[in-house]
From TrEMBL:
This is Lipocalin-like protein. It comes from Maribacter polysiphoniae.
Amino acid sequence: MRIKPFSIVLTLFFLLGSCEKENAVSVNGLGSAIIGAWSRTDVVPSGVTYTDLRYFDIKTTYTFDSDKAYSYRVDFYGFEDENPEAIIGSSENVGTYEVRGDSLFIKAVAHTSWEKGFKPDPETTRLGGKAYGYKFGIVDDELTLYYISYPADAPVPTQMTFERVVP
């Protein structure tokens, strides 16, 4: 009896597909697994030319509460050569969220921001609460959001990973 190559490939596909990642959270558990704070820090250049570049940090934090409230906060830190530990600006959206399978839907209802040099007093704006969504996954203590970004040319599949903040 001769085994066809297609049968072998199909069998391997099913065997590999049935294996689970040891540290991955099942889709059914994503709703409760997302609860907590998730953060990342990016180093961003600022300057007109390469020789003028100065760098500062941006710390981005998502917080998801068990009561379906969320916040998305972005803190801007001083330049690495001048007050790198000082927060020089901040922006925060607050609202609600919902998890459906591996999709996260967020509704922002208010935005508050301030900036040390231009707008030192926090200012809050009410938002329309329009929902937008992401696909997401959690492996170990990392939350990855998958979304479409829109640079000048065309939509681009994009992802961003955050680490769980340990209290």
